[in-house]
Amino acid sequence: MLKQYADHWALVTGASSGIGTEFARGLAARGMHLVLTARRREELEVLAEELHTRHGTRCLIIPGDLNLPEFPEQLIAETRRQKITIELLVNNAGFGMADTIENTDRKRVLDMLQVNMVALTNLTYLVLPEMLERRSGAVLNVSSISAFQPVAYMPAYSASKAYILHFSEALWAEARSRKVTVMALCPGVTSTNFFEIAGVGGWLKKHRSHTPEYVVRVALKALDKRRQYYVPGIRNYILTLASRIATRRTVVQSSMKYFRPRKKKNDDKK
Ligand SMILES: NC(=O)c1ccc[n+]([C@@H]2O[C@H](COP(=O)([O-])OP(=O)(O)OC[C@H]3O[C@@H](n4cnc5c(N)ncnc54)[C@H](OP(=O)(O)O)[C@@H]3O)[C@@H](O)[C@H]2O)c1
Questions:
Q1: Is residue 92 in contact with ligand 1, taking CB distance under 6 Å?
Q2: What is the pLDDT of residues 124-141, one digit of tens each?
Q3: Which CATH number characterizes residue 209's domain?
């Protein structure tokens, strides 16, 4: 890798929307064939059709729920059954949730940790040893700018993304001398369904955002350079530096303004 994308296979999780769909498009444009996965089969089928028409991409669709502990293994078993060698794994699937402690749905938090951390870890260890043996390949794990600081009202989400950053950087250090790279991508606000799903739909209208197309374009360039992590956008990068200089107390307290839930009308009457 990494300039040799053409005719190799990439596996993209969370390919049914947002950043994952754009990764599929960007990699197909570089001549890669794709294994596409997410829960929504129809979106994957429409995408596969588009990529085949535009680039002649071969796509294998394996729909499934990464919240199920057995799915990552089934996914990789199916690619092996089809004699596909995964040259690039893009662990992109994930979601967030923002709320107060009292209103947090505990079961949903656990589901989120399963998808954001456990499934990602499982898939990484399912493909990395073979890449090291072949002495080629790459894993791109989608973390977030929130990996650099605790975020009030999103404690488990920001911690899950910090896990991805640390996990990926440690693997990068171990794998790099063996011609395999692991990169954590840490996007800032990106215009996708993410905020709607996290329960803060209005967020995007009020903040500057990158398009998923931009995020993927610069991410693939960073992957070419074998960066261990990458933060798209200079403003986002400066924010990550600022959070390292300020005291931890200042950083976490200042995060309270981001996702503080609005008071519901009835709250005042209680
Ligand atoms: N948007 C941002 O501002 C932002 C910033 C930093 C990091 N990120 C990260 O970027 C990644 C992609 O998010 P996005 O912004 O593109 O949001 P998105 O449009 O909501 O995409 C999320 C993707 O994850 C998949 N997914 C969610 N739960 C899943 C599950 N249980 N099993 C399998 N797939 C699942 C979804 O597919 P199905 O619903 O079809 O299963 C969808 O394809 C996430 O890891 C997110 O944390 C986003």
A1: yes
A2: 999 999 999 999 999 999
A3: 3.40.50.720
